[in-house]
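quick q for whoever's on today - can somebody do inverse folding on this one?? i tried earlier but teh output was garbage lol. tokens:
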């Protein structure tokens, strides 16, 4: 059956890790407080975890695809240490103005375009309507809206975005911790 899985899509910079410009060294990664607890809870609730990130630093020549791949594998490993499986990280290296050579182009993948999310939906048979996108920018919300993602959560503690396409604006990850199912009963097997 098509489209039966739900996913939690996550922006990377400003959600997974503290945003610094053109992050590429693992020594510079500072994970946001509560991100492991949050993703672990959604994983337990049956959500696939997918990271969706613009990486124009590649197109600008600040770091290579290989550098990015190594950092991504390290980040996935840090999640694994917490028992959390990140299904995939999708990235877009292009920039329409500042990309160098072949990297200078409009891309259907670059947020606010929905291309990366649509690819993940197709690859993993995700039901967009029952899925969530968690991001810290209006461009994340726009991309999620255009991909048909039902729940679009804007994490914006500094209130710098408009929140226009968000279905919910939060100041803290604890606000979207999935609630334990009240009807959950441990089956009697004795
Ligand atoms: Mg961000």
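ok took a stab at it. sequence:
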């Amino acid at each position: 059956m098509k489209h039966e899985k739900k996913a939690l899509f996550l922006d990377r910079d400003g959600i997974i890790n503290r945003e610094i410009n053109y992050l590429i060294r693992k020594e510079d990664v500072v994970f946001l407080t509560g991100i492991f607890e949050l993703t672990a809870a959604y994983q337990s609730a049956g959500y696939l975890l997918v990271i969706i990130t613009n990486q124009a630093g590649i197109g600008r020549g600040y770091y290579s695809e290989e550098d990015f791949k190594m950092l991504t594998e390290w980040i996935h490993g840090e999640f694994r240490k917490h028992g959390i499986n990140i299904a995939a990280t999708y990235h877009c290296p292009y920039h329409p103005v500042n990309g160098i050579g072949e990297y200078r182009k409009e891309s259907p993948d670059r947020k606010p375009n929905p291309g990366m999310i649509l690819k993940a939906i197709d690859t993993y048979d995700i039901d967009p309507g029952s899925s969530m996108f968690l991001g810290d920018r209006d461009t994340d919300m726009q991309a999620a809206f255009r991909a048909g993602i039902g729940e679009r959560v804007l994490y914006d503690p500094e209130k710098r975005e408009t929140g226009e396409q968000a279905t919910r604006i939060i100041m803290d990850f604890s606000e979207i911790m999935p609630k334990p199912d009240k009807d959950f009963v441990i089956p009697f097997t004795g």
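fwiw The longest strand covers residues 48-54. also The helical segments are 35-44, 56-59, 65-81, 115-124, 138-146. so keep that in mind when u check it
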